[in-house]
């Protein structure tokens, strides 16, 4: 076979692609770990530092605020400086800030460190997924990018397991050891990432053809070259400002809106599942077991969506995800006092069906923008989506006490309807497109 005629988009998946997928999962894993570990140790930490309720809230929210800041900043830097250097530096920062939590003596220092941790995690989202998207063959790009979402739940589960174990054996300083424990996965991911090459597409966008050629030969073999990469020259006049107007402005609106509409109910339900279930009549162990079951259903929904993202296509998967998860929320809103088994089934149904929108949060942003602004686009969408996460998490307890559980679920249904309508009119199909064509304005 003449490899000179093979596009790298059609090259077979190799061991490098699989390893890079694992290395790039650091962002969602550490996102889930860092956000979850704080809840495990909050009681002991609050007693040790004599925290006020305001300080507790700020400590819990500071990482989300940091992710809002870090997403767009990280995207800008990864487009200007490349993917490779920051791919390592963010994990160095994560390790340092995690370890520094061990020695905190005041709430405000801890708030600052959690903010910096959030900035580092937020920065890793756009650069890691951009680098991965720019290497993956088109047949596997959607499913492997989508699979990263499940690592958030793996990180959260590891945080709960590690945190509870440390609290059992760590004594009065257990909370310090638990918070600092994030240095372990950060260090392991850093070691794995050492030696990762720069994105050949980014090198080409900067006119560095010889370096791009070397990377391609290293990853794919000596028989391949830049001639096998469809993306041979940078887009004309594409800058980060294109994200705020014209056709790329419409794309960032679509990505941000569907992402926000999917995570407002998702974050709220995940964070307050036991309280919501208790409000709907599930008491005692039922509420705890139900919350665990819902978490497992979220993972199952992501797994099923990963399998469907190619055969069903991006657009259909997104529309079906909003449609059926929204229906589950509608029924929960209409029958908040229904039998316990019905409540659990409907919550489980929501968790499974929202999986499509969840996994596409990593796929669409990387496919709909060219190499020159891909990192910035993913970073901006990541940052703006955190506003939705914060709003949803903040308003749920207020909503439960003011308008009741039924109306709260109906509001969540309304959010899903908005997501469906926006997707119906704006969601494109990029399933079988080369990356450079999906990111151009010609389709």
Automatic annotation (TrEMBL):
Keywords: Membrane, Transmembrane, Transmembrane helix, Transport. The chain crosses the membrane at residues 20-45, 57-78, 85-104, 110-132, 144-162, 174-192, 252-274, 286-305, 317-335, 341-364, 376-396, 408-427. CDD domains: MFS_SV2_like (cd17316). GO terms for cellular component: membrane. SUPFAM superfamilies: MFS general substrate transporter. It holds the Pfam family Sugar_tr. PROSITE patterns: MFS, SUGAR_TRANSPORT_2. GO terms for molecular function: transmembrane transporter activity. The keyword Metal-binding does not apply. Residues 20-431 form the Major facilitator superfamily (MFS) profile domain. It is a multi-pass membrane protein. It is found in: Membrane. The keyword Transport applies. Belongs to the major facilitator superfamily. Sugar transporter (TC 2.A.1.1) family. This is MFS transporter, putative metabolite transport protein. The lineage of its organism: Bacteria, Pseudomonadati, Pseudomonadota, Gammaproteobacteria, Pseudomonadales.
């Amino acid at each position: 076979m003449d490899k000179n005629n093979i596009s790298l988009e059609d090259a077979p998946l190799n061991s490098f692609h699989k390893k890079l997928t694992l290395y790039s999962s650091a962002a969602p894993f550490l996102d889930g770990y860092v956000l979850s570990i704080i809840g495990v140790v909050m009681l002991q930490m609050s007693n040790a530092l004599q925290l006020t309720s305001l300080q507790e809230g700020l400590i819990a929210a500071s990482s989300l605020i940091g992710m809002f800041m870090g997403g767009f900043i990280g995207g800008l830097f990864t487009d200007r400086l490349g993917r490779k250097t920051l791919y390592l530096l963010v994990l160095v920062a994560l390790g340092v800030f995690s370890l520094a939590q061990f020695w905190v003596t005041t709430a405000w220092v801890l708030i600052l460190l959690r903010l910096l941790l959030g900035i580092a995690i937020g920065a890793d989202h756009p650069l890691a997924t951009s680098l991965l998207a720019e290497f993956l063959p088109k047949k596997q790009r959607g499913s492997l990018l989508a699979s990263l979402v499940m690592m958030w739940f793996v990180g959260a589960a590891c945080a709960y397991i590690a945190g509870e174990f440390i609290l059992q054996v760590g004594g009065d300083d257990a909370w310090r050891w638990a918070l600092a424990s994030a240095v372990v996965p950060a260090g392991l991911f850093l070691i794995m990432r050492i030696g990762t090459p720069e994105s050949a597409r980014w090198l080409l966008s900067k006119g560095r053809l010889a370096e791009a050629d070397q990377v391609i030969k290293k990853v794919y073999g000596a028989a391949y070259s830049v001639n096998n990469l469809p993306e041979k020259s940078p887009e004309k006049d594409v800058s980060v400002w294109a994200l705020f107007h014209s056709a790329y402005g419409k794309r960032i609106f679509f990505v941000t809106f569907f992402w926000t509409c999917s995570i407002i109910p998702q974050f709220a339900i995940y964070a307050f599942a036991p309280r919501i279930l208790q409000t709907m009549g599930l008491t005692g162990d039922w509420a705890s077991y139900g919350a665990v079951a819902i978490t497992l259903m979220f993972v199952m929904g992501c797994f099923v969506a990963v399998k469907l993202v190619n055969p069903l296509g991006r657009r259909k998967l997104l529309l079906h995800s909003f449609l059926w998860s929204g229906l589950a929320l509608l029924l929960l809103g209409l029958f908040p006092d229904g039998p316990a088994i019905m409540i659990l089934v409907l919550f489980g149904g929501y968790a499974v069906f929202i999986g499509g929108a969840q996994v596409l949060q990593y796929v669409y942003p990387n496919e709909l923008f060219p190499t020159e602004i891909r990192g910035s686009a993913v970073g901006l969408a990541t940052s703006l989506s955190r506003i939705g996460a914060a709003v949803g998490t903040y308003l749920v307890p207020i909503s439960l006490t003011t308008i009741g559980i039924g109306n709260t679920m109906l509001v969540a249904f309304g959010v899903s309807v908005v997501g469906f309508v926006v997707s119906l009119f704006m969601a494109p199909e990029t399933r079988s497109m080369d990356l450079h064509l999906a990111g151009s304005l010609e389709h």
